[in-house]
Design a protein that fits this description.
Helices cover 51% and strands 13% of the residues. Helix 3 (47-54) runs antiparallel to helix 5 (79-106). It has 2 domains: 1-26 and 109-201, 3-Layer(aba) Sandwich (Rossmann fold); 33-93, no CATH class. The mean pLDDT is 96. It is globular. The chain is α/β, with parallel strands linked by helices.
């Protein structure tokens, strides 16, 4: 089983590409943002440490973390953001390590994909077998974000300013997919790259 990291700037089309891969290959896909949410649910590995840090005031009547209350706490004390990240980021990594081992034991999938915008920054280059950078022209990404998410120019530029540059993404990646044009062209790049793996009709 090959472990592949999927990263790239906002609006590059990572989710679209993973939807295609999921439909056509024997794989498992883990989205880091979804994992982070899951491990903060009651019983999750980050739930108790976060509640211990922020207090039971962030919980609703059923014991679930209220995101708005959590955000309020962090806004009031900026040092808490780093402390929460120190809980969540290792928690995500632990979850992914366990998931990889489970899939290896099952032997049912050939490819294990991990998607996150911050894979490189969070040190996953040494965890994955390959890092894929999903590239798209900046102007195309801006147009997509305006159309699909209704983002303003200001919000888009704020997000992009916090992400790695194209040069940094390329420098740390093993493979680049150009997702600037048609979906068919992107799919052909993926099919060529994964020609040794099972293609599900």
């Amino acid at each position: 089983m090959k472990i592949i990291g999927i990263t790239g700037g906002v609006g590059a089309g990572k989710s679209q590409i993973l939807t295609f891969i999921k439909e056509h290959y024997k794989c498992r896909i883990c989205m880091a943002d979804e994992v982070a949410k899951q491990i903060q649910l009651p019983g999750g590995i980050c739930y108790e440490p976060i509640v211990a840090l922020l207090g039971t005031g962030i919980l609703d009547a059923d014991g679930y973390i209220i995101k708005s209350e959590m955000a309020k706490k962090i806004f009031e004390d900026k040092t808490l953001l780093e402390k929460v990240n120190q809980i969540v980021h290792p928690g995500v990594r632990t979850y992914l390590e366990r998931a990889c081992e489970e899939e290896k034991k099952k032997g049912e999938v050939e490819l294990f994909f991990i998607e996150a915008a911050l894979l490189i920054e969070n040190g996953y280059c040494d965890f994955v077998d390959e890092m894929w950078y999903i590239y798209a022209d900046k102007e195309i990404r801006i147009a997509r974000l305006k159309e699909s998410r209704g983002y303003t120019d200001e919000k888009i530029h704020q997000i992009m300013a916090c992400q790695l540059s194209e040069e940094e993404f390329r420098d740390k990646s093993d493979f680049v997919i150009d997702n600037s044009w048609s979906l068919k062209e992107t799919q052909e790049q993926i099919k060529t790259k994964l020609e040794d793996y099972t293609w599900l009709k």
